[in-house]
Amino acid sequence: MIRVVIADDQPLIRAGLRGILELESDLKVVGEAASGRQAVQQARDLAVDVFLMDIRMPEMDGIEATAEICANPALAHVSVLVLTTFETDEHVMAALRAGASGFLGKSAKPEAVVEAIRLVAQGDALLSPAATRSLIERVLREPRDGQAQDLGRLQVSVEGLTEREREVMVLVGEGLSNDEIADRLAISFHTVKTHVNRAMAKLGAHDRAQLVVIAYESGLLGSR
After folding, report:
1. Which pLDDT does position 140 carry in this prediction?
2. Is the pLDDT of residue 74 over 70?
3. Could you tell me if residue 223 is inside a domain?
4. Which pLDDT does position 223 carry in this prediction?
5. Does residue 222 belong to any structural domain of this protein?
6. Are residues 63 and 169 in the same domain?
7. Residue 180, Cα to own-chain centre: how many angstroms?
8. What average pLDDT does range 117-125 have in this prediction?
């Protein structure tokens, strides 16, 4: 059972999300928070696996709350899925830096939100296609010096990937989840996860988001 807390300052949004999640036999809503501060408190008080975290909330916003939750070693098992109206590059970058495992827009279909919760609960990272494009455009437009050097080193290492690892990396770069990649390539979810993990290990990528950036920077994906 995946235990979820919904953090959003709008009661109607919380009620709608609760209604969606309660239809799933493997998901259980164990709490709601109307502010970032309440979310942090519930992370400490409740047995939680995944937070659905809005960004704009009173007292403490979702980015600050995510950072505080993810920085606490006692909450290392908790994943944060940011669900927001604002799929802008700065929000994507801020959420990732804060430690969020995923980022979806509120325009996502209910089934996409449910699947995203399952993905981050099992340790995967997920970015919506819009968030992925935003992230890539920002990183390539304004790379940090250290990051630019790292990507320059990693670009050469792409040659060491197998053909299948390259294929999977391209699909990751297009914003597909592991389940979607499995369907596209007619292979199992676990096989996809293995290819992603091996590609990350070979490239020295710390997370899925950096793998996406490398896919663009190395030329595996053309300009979008």
Report:
1. 53
2. yes
3. no
4. 43
5. no
6. no
7. 15
8. 81
pLDDT at 224 over 70: no
83 vs 143: which has the higher pLDDT: 83
Residue 224 lies in a domain: no
- Cα distances from 6 to residues 77, 136, 147, 223, in angstroms, run 17, 28, 34, 36
- Asked which of 134, 166, 194 is the last residue of a domain, the reply is 134
Q: DSSP characters for 107-144?
A: TS-HHHHHHHHHHHHTT--EE-HHHHHHHHHHHHHS--
Nearest Cα to 117, choosing from 209, 19, 26? Answer: 26
User: Residue written as tokens 């070693």?
Assistant: 73
In a domain, 127, yes or no: yes
For the chain, the distance separating the N- and C-terminal CA atoms, rounded to the nearest angstrom, is 39
> In this structure, are 154 and 112 located in the same domain?
no
Q: Which amino acid is at 160?
A: G
Query: Does the pLDDT of residue 9 top 60, yes or no?
Result: yes
Tabulate helix, strand, coil % of the chain (nearest 5).
Answer: 55, 15, 30
Question: Where residue 163 falls among pLDDT bands split at 50, 70, 90?
Answer: very high
- Residue type at position 114: V
Alpha-carbon dihedral 28, 31, 34, 38, rounded to 10 degrees: -130
Range of the domain at 163: 143-217
At residue 96, does pLDDT exceed 90? no
Note whether 157 and 209 are same-domain residues.
Answer: yes
User: What value does the mean pLDDT of the chain take?
Assistant: 82
Cα separation, 8 vs 10, in Å, equals: 6
pLDDT at 156: 42
213 Cβ contact list (under 8 Å, min separation 6): 135, 136, 139, 140, 151
Task: Out of 134, 166, 186, pick the residue that ends a domain.
Answer: 134
- Tell me: do 122 and 152 sit in the same domain: no
